[in-house]
């Protein structure tokens, strides 16, 4: 009898908890304005400034694969600076380990950062040929007769009738002289941004997304020395840009800042720190009116921390294991231990 009473009491408590959870969920749902009939959700997952950090890549890819499986209207992009610093394995393979790993991670497109000439312009183009992920190269040009077909000015994707146009802008402070970088050199980002926006509007896109390697704001060493615009400058000069997925300044933009900038400028600007510590997620809630242009009703932003809690993508993990086995079989062998703390940035010395 005692056990029977205990079980009945426990059942009532569980039912009460579930009812409370239901009411809470209903309250939260009631506070969020619903999508209009025909509304569409589109997510952009993004990384930037990976700088040869291989460790987080399998878990980033695992998270992205799971998210895309549950949310088909998703695009995965990178905002440049894959190379320089980081793993010696990438240096040993002249970029191929990182570029090849990224090709298997499910990126839909990416742009070049100012450090991505680290192994030379010829090597950069060679990797683009070998791994044909679309490269948004809106302000890149060449003195050669042609470039790989996957190097494009713009990309247009359609999600449930909503057309989203992407273009990519690379920092134009470095390598603007075509004689110094004949394979890929940089055109003026202000001019090419205006051209790309006009092109996308002519193609009838509903949302314009700039993937940039300019910086949320100028870094201290650039003030007074570099003449490229920041992301905030870019949207001020081009009000038709709806979204900026940024890189270069290694800024982890918190939701409060993103919303403050949106309120001030009308553009959503986001960036996901650096070194693969985070995956940025921007979800656009778009209302499709029966007549007129679809509009962004609201948006969600999140910086997903890359930890051991995220599952590894088996293909990416296996690719990196093969690269280590082939090129640096003893890379993970412990040869000694420091008995005193050492600053991270001095480890290479």
What does this protein structure show overall?
The protein has 349 residues and is of the alpha/beta class. It has a single domain, classed as Metallo-dependent phosphatases (Purple Acid Phosphatase, chain A, domain 2). It has nine helices and 14 strands. It has helices at residues 2-31, 57-70, 88-92, 96-103, 121-130, 189-202, 231-237, 255-265, 314-327; strands spanning 40-47, 74-78, 109-110, 135-136, 140-141, 151-152, 154-159, 162-170, 185-186, 207-213, 243-245, 268-270, 278-287, 295-305. Strands 3-2-1-13-14 form a five-stranded mixed β-sheet, covered by helices on one side. A five-stranded mixed β-sheet has the order 7-8-10-11-12. A two-stranded parallel ribbon has the order 4-6. The radius of gyration is 23 Å and the shape is globular. The model is unreliable at 1-11 and 13-33 (pLDDT under 50).
Estimated share of beta-strand residues: 15-25%
| The first-level CATH class name | Alpha Beta
Mean pLDDT: 88
State the CATH architecture.
Answer: 4-Layer Sandwich
Assign a percent range to the helix content. 25-40%
Low-confidence stretches: 1-11, 13-33
Q: Tell me the quaternary state.
A: single chain
- Structural class computed from helices and strand pairing: alpha/beta
CA-based gyration radius: 23 Å
SSE ordering: HEHEHHEHEEEEEEHEHEHEEEH
Helix run count: 9
Give a summary of the structure in a few sentences.
The chain has 349 residues and is of the alpha/beta class. The chain has one domain: Purple Acid Phosphatase, chain A, domain 2, CATH 3.60.21.10.
